[in-house]
Specification:
Length: about 300
């Protein structure tokens, strides 16, 4: 009996104290030929530990509830502990009653510059800017958590997106690329401001409809699920009438374009002629993909 109680307590402790992210971190240094490669391997290990072992929220998360995600960092130049890189951030979440994982976020940030000394400690303090390396990784960790929460409840990720906004605000004074509105129109500043803006609210509403009312219903009723995914795309398309070719619309289709084609290229038929027209209107860059949707 005593051993059984200990086993149960250990299990409950494991379930209640898992961190939020299950993140694969990779650092590619193929373009760097004149440096000791060990520093890149150490960076990869350090970031893997940092992302997966930091407690990003106050939530108690079961191990099977951790968010699957990845961060792929490509080093373009490296000199005297200064890195110029890009980072591809992706996340997904499992569809209810299914083994299928649906992409939620897929973004390539081309302005990721930082200093890193091998074996330096990486510690996250939400109330200070300590380094661009920590701030960018923490920013995207909160974006991932916030967008994932949005797929389960309307505006469910607001507090985590606000945490990302706080990171961005603290980082602005650093003068590092990607944090201010004067850098580019598609950077971290605009990403978090757009996500929290009422103007672009249809994006977050559409993500909830797409997942919770759409994909999650398919195990019980594929046709109803597909119809609700169609409605979700129509919801997101409302942004186009206010801000054509917006950054946040591209964020949606960068994650969802291939999946949309797959959903509407088989299974129970739904009326999709208007959907294809909408897709071509709001995301013309994916026109070749939309041509693969048959109706």
């Amino acid at each position: 009996m005593r051993n059984w109680v200990i086993t149960v307590l250990l299990f409950l402790s494991f379930v209640g104290n898992a961190q939020e992210l299950n993140c694969s971190v990779r650092v590619s240094y193929d373009q760097i030929t004149n440096a000791n490669v060990q520093v890149f391997k150490t960076l990869e290990r350090s970031l893997t530990d940092f992302v997966n072992n930091t407690k990003w929220t106050e939530k108690n998360v079961a191990s099977n509830e951790r968010i699957d995600c990845s961060m792929f960092i490509t080093v373009n130049s490296y000199e005297s502990n200064n890195f110029k890189t890009t980072i591809q951030v992706q996340s997904s979440r499992q569809v209810f009653n299914s083994t299928y994982s649906s992409p939620v976020f897929n973004h390539n940030d081309k302005d990721f510059e930082f200093q890193y000394i091998e074996f330096q400690n990486l510690l996250y303090n939400p109330n200070s800017y300590d380094s661009n390396l920590i701030s960018v990784i923490a920013f995207y960790a909160n974006i991932i958590i916030g967008l994932d929460a949005d797929t389960f409840s309307r505006q469910g990720g607001t507090k985590y997106l606000e945490a990302a906004s706080n990171i961005a605000n603290l980082a602005q004074s650093s003068g590092t690329k990607g944090w201010t509105q004067t850098d580019k129109t598609q950077n971290r500043y605009y990403l978090i401001n757009d996500l929290l803006s009422n103007t672009y609210a249809p994006y977050r509403e559409g993500m909830y409809e797409y997942h919770f009312s759409g994909l999650d219903k398919m195990a019980d009723d594929v046709k109803t699920g597909k119809t609700n995914v169609l409605k979700a795309v129509e919801t997101v398309s409302k942004i186009h009438s206010v801000r054509p070719n917006s950054f946040i619309s591209r964020i949606f289709f960068d994650a969802k374009s291939d999946e949309i084609v797959s959903i509407f290229s088989g299974g129970p038929s739904v009326e999709i002629a208007s959907l294809v027209d909408t897709l071509n209107r709001v995301s013309p860059l994916n026109a070749v993909k939309w041509n693969n949707i048959k109706f």
